[in-house]
Amino acid sequence: MGAGVLGSLRAGGLLLWVLLGTPIPWGHPTMGVSTTPRGSPSPHPGVPPPQGSLCPSPAAAPRRRLVRVKVVRRKVVKKKVLKKRPKAPAKDVAAPQEPSCPPLGLESLRVQDSQLRASSHKRYGLGAHRGRLNIQSGLYDGDFYDGGWCAGQEDAGQWLEVDARGLTNFTGVITQGLNSIWTYDWVTSYKVQVSNDTYTWHPCRNGTEEAVFPGNKDPETPVLNVLPEPVVGRYLRINPQTWFPNGTICLRAEVLGCPLPGACPARPLPSPSDCLDFRHHNYKEMRKLMKRVSDECPDITRVYSIGKSYLGLKMYVMEISDNPGQHEVGEPEFRYVAGMHGNEVLGRELLLNLMEYLCREFRAGNPRVVQLVTETRIHLLPSMNPDGYETAYKLVGPRCRQMGMGWDGMAWGHPGWYRMWMRWAHPGCSDGWEWGDRDAQASAGGCG
Q1: Residue ranges of the F5/8 type C domain (predicted)?
Q2: Residue 426's closest CA among 307, 284, 289, 305?
Q3: φ and ψ at residue 296, rounded to 5 degrees
Q4: Do 307 and 435 meet the contact criterion of CB atoms below 8 Å apart?
């Protein structure tokens, strides 16, 4: 480049031109400007010289270095980190419903056997009391305690009923098939119905249609169905609609529900804590109890005598019916007799408690008892042999304890005692047999 040296340096986007040595002639393509001294003829005719040279003559100034720096600015963009928000579920996709009420207690046995009923059953071991979630069967086919409830018929009219013993907000049902190593039985679809009195039943609806719930696909897997809308009632029925084609109607179940606030508490089953008079009653106490029950329920009870015993004690009968004292054509009649043998005391107490129970449950509106009283004429004879009871009561002492048996035991163990005992302890029984023939009750039962 003549006397000068041109160097090019590039670093970090900077263009650096360095001119070394003598000035580069003006107009050199490297400079792009003319270096012709003032007053000299222009090397390019017709082109006026520049006014004021950037590089004066050597005589006027020493040599200089011309540095041209080009600065390139870079724009730094900071990245923004956006946090992802969880996606909200689509409005048209309904989230799975969760039951808000706990199980009533079929599986835990909090629901007792007496609270379970069914339209029919194959046998006792497959009765309604076995229709509990996760209940297990015995080892043998036809075991007395089998693994579920099985209907006695195969039609869509079969049902398993649960009594919650109070108004309950039902929210769901869990079902299983029959637990068995011998057969495969389960329900594939069912309906749900509720009632307050077991007479009028209301189906569970899905909008305007009666809801049909999917059932099981195998015997063991529990299937939960949440009701479209909670329903309120005391009784709930599971009504199978379809079942495994190679099996029959069998299921185990659990019901989900919450007792309503302020609802009447459930009445417990008869137990020693109840107000029933659980104790032994002699003849005088028996008459007082029967009179007290008759005074409590005068509209459905009547006390009458069928005759006298050998010792002159009256044999009292309690009639329980919606029309006591009247024989209604077509209405079945039933009599229960207890105390045919003098020392068989349990039968007397059972019938006395039955009188109390029927009276109080009828007044409380128990639908089963109301139906029983209004559709049946019931006769209860708590002591058919009052003489034998009083004699045995007095003989509870050293002699009976020594022989290790009651009055009847002495009679049956010793023929002489038996003949004497029949002469004085059972003469009044003939009045009982005549009473049964005269009133012609449809059926009868003995209670010791």
Answers
A1: 99-258
A2: 307
A3: -70, -35
A4: yes
Measure CA 252 to chain center.
Answer: 11
pLDDT digits (tens, 9 = 90+) for 354-376: 999 999 899 888 888 999 999 99
pLDDT score of 145 = 81
CATH class entry, domain 113-259: mainly beta
- 241-299 pLDDT, tens digit per residue, is 999 999 999 999 999 999 988 655 444 444 444 566 667 788 888 889 899 999 999 99
What single DSSP character describes residue 107?
A: T
Classify each residue of 243-252 as buried b or exposed e, where b means 16 or more C-beta atoms within 10 Å of its C-beta: bbeebbbbbb
pLDDT of residue 10: 44
Give DSSP secondary structure letters for 235-264: EEEEEEEEE-TTS-SEEEEEEEEEEPTTPP
Amino acid identity, residue 131? G
113-259 and 283-446: identical CATH topology: no
122, two tokens: 């194959």
- Residue boundaries of the structural domains of the chain: 1-32+65-72, 113-259, 283-446
Do the bridges between strand 301-308 and strand 314-320 make them parallel or antiparallel, or are there none, so unpaired? antiparallel
The pLDDT, as a whole number, for residue 433 is: 46
Q: Name residue 20's beta-bridge partners.
A: 5
pTM recorded for the entire structure: 0.43
CATH 3.20.20.70 fits 283-446, yes or no: no
Structure tokens at 107: 């599986």
Quick check: 374 and 331 in contact, CB under 8 A?
Answer: no
CB 432 within 8 A of CB 379: no
Closest CA to 238 of 102, 97, 128, 122: 128
Q: Which DSSP category does 323 fall into?
A: S
φ, ψ for residue 303 (rounded to 5)?
Answer: -105, 130
